[in-house]
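chain below, 213 aa
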Amino acid sequence: MTGQLTPDILLSAYRAGIFPMAESATDESIFWVDPKYRGIMPLNNFHVSKSLRRAILKLDYQISINTSFKEVIKMCAERPETWINHDILTNYCLLHQSGHAHCLEVWSDKKLIGGIYGVSIGAVFFGESMFSKKNNASKIALAYLVDRLKATGFKLFDTQFLTPHLASLGAVEIPKTKYKVLLFQAVERTANFNAKDYSPDVSAIAQRRAQTS
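prediction:
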């Protein structure tokens, strides 16, 4: 079935704790996911390894937000297996236009080398996907995103699933029941991803929970 998504349906689904996926980029149908265990990134527990710290402090990159949303989501889909089909891409771009979906981009030599995108409702950021075209680019994106979310009022960073990669950066897994309690509380609060008074402190981002790697 095609055309089964709309921005309003997506927002209602996220508020209920579910999200859509497709079997592949060419599959025209979607299915709804409600994991028994949910991955979240505690905003006070992001891990920065020594190697990531060096990469952040090298400053051979530039950070921006919401300048190339469609390109970010397309690059996230450029992998052998993806859940991002045309219907998903179209509707998340519509969410971006309405201010409910955001991306953070990492650039080098005017080329997009990393990024992450997701949906925001209230004080919840629902991370969807990230990509990297250069070593550490997606980790740098995540480090800057966590700092922005923490500084602009977000209370819950949902990563959907817990992967070994996310676990190494501080993400944890919690039962669905606990997740939904946190979700229902945080969606009623206020945060502002685009806060004009926010400015990243690179040194503070690089120092966050420095660990040996």
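The domain at 7-211 is CATH 3.40.630.70 (Aminopeptidase). The chain has one domain: 7-211.
thats it, cya
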